[in-house]
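Researcher: Here's the sequence for the chain we discussed earlier.
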Amino acid sequence: VSAGKLEDAKARIADLEHDWDAAQGRLKSINSTKWTELDSAIDRALRQLRSARPNYAGCKSSLEALVAVIDADSR
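Model: Thanks. This is the structure I predict for it:
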């Protein structure tokens, strides 16, 4: 998204969605609260990138929010 390549970002988030869904059973059983938080952030980013008219600001914001959720437990 930062490079202005929304189609590339859309493809990459599809990869994330696939891997996330494939690991749902295992990851959700580890920490269902965190799983739900991450799943919601991923869904928001997916909606932005898959919008009929995706815009840079919305896509960037949703991806930054997703990264913040991921980083929240790594500090």
